[in-house]
UniProtKB/TrEMBL annotation:
Pathway: Pyrimidine metabolism; Purine metabolism. Substrate binds at residue 204. It holds the Pfam family TK. PANTHER family: THYMIDINE KINASE (PTHR11441), THYMIDINE KINASE A (PTHR11441:SF12). Belongs to the thymidine kinase family. It catalyses: thymidine + ATP = dTMP + ADP + H(+). One of its GO terms (biological process) is thymidine metabolic process. This is Thymidine kinase. Keywords: ATP-binding, DNA synthesis, Kinase, Metal-binding, Nucleotide-binding, Transferase, Zinc. One of its GO terms (molecular function) is identical protein binding. Transmembrane segments: none annotated. The keyword Transmembrane helix does not apply. Its EC number is 2.7.1.21.
Length: 208
C-alpha cells in the first residue's frame, strides 16, 4: 500500500514540474504556462524575414498581441521597421540587445504580449538567455529568424545555440547565383574579413 502510494505521488509530482530550456525547474501547474520557440534559418536571400513577418502577421490576425525586434546594427532599409529584400515593411523595436526590450517597452506592455518576433537574430549576443526567459518564465511564443552560418560557413552568433531548445526549426534555401540550384550558404563577394559586415546583394550572394 505504501509502495503504491509512493509511486503515485512521484507520478503526480513529475507531471507538475519540468526542466526548462535554461536548465532550471518550473511548476507546470503554475499561473504562467511555458511558451514556445520557433527558429527560421538559412542563407541570405532565402526569405527568412518574409517567413517571420508572415508568422507575426498571422498571429496578430488571430488576436494575439505581437511585437517585432531587430538589431539596431541593421539600418539598411529603415531604422524602425523590419524590411524584406523586396520592400515589405513591418514596424519594430530596433535594439542593441534583447535585455533592453522589457525596459523600453515597459513591464505592463510586455506582460500583455503573446508573441515576440526577432529578425537578424545572429546579431544578439544575449539571444539564448532572452529566449529561455521569455518562453519558459514568461510564457511567450518566440519566433526568430537569422543566419545559421557566416560567409565562411562557421556558426554565426547564438542562433545555433537555440536549436536544441526550439520547438520547431525551419531551414530555408535560396537560389544559387552560380548554378541555379538550391543555395544553402552565403558567399561574400568582397575582400573584407570581419564576421559582421551588414550589406545586401552588392556584397553577398547565395550559393550551393
Amino acid at each position: 500500500m505504501s509502495s503504491s502510494y509512493s509511486i503515485k505521488s512521484q507520478i503526480t509530482i513529475c507531471s507538475s514540474i519540468a526542466k526548462t530550456r535554461g536548465g532550471s525547474v518550473i511548476d507546470l501547474m503554475g499561473p504562467t504556462p511555458s511558451g514556445e520557440i520557433h527558429v527560421i534559418v538559412g542563407p541570405m536571400f532565402a526569405g527568412k524575414t518574409t517567413a517571420l513577418l508572415r508568422r507575426v502577421k498571422s498571429e496578430a490576425a488571430n488576436g494575439r498581441k505581437v511585437a517585432l525586434i531587430k538589431s539596431s546594427k541593421d539600418n539598411r532599409y529603415a531604422v524602425d521597421s523590419v524590411v524584406t529584400h523586396d520592400g515589405i515593411k513591418y514596424p519594430c523595436w530596433a535594439l542593441p540587445n534583447l535585455q533592453a526590450f522589457t525596459q523600453r517597452l515597459g513591464s505592463d506592455a510586455y506582460n500583455k504580449l503573446d508573441v515576440i518576433g526577432i529578425d537578424e537574430a545572429q546579431f544578439f549576443d544575449d539571444l539564448y538567455d532572452f529566449c529561455c526567459k521569455a518562453a519558459d518564465n514568461d510564457g511567450k511564443t518566440i519566433v526568430i529568424a537569422g543566419l545559421d552560418g557566416d560567409y565562411l560557413r562557421r556558426s554565426f552568433g547564438s542562433v545555433l545555440d537555440i536549436i536544441p531548445i526550439a520547438d520547431t526549426v525551419t531551414k530555408l534555401t535560396a537560389r544559387c547565383e552560380q548554378c541555379g540550384r538550391k543555395a544553402f550558404f552565403t558567399l561574400r563577394k568582397t575582400a573584407e574579413t570581419q564576421t559582421e559586415l551588414i550589406a545586401g546583394a552588392d556584397v553577398y550572394m547565395p550559393v550551393s
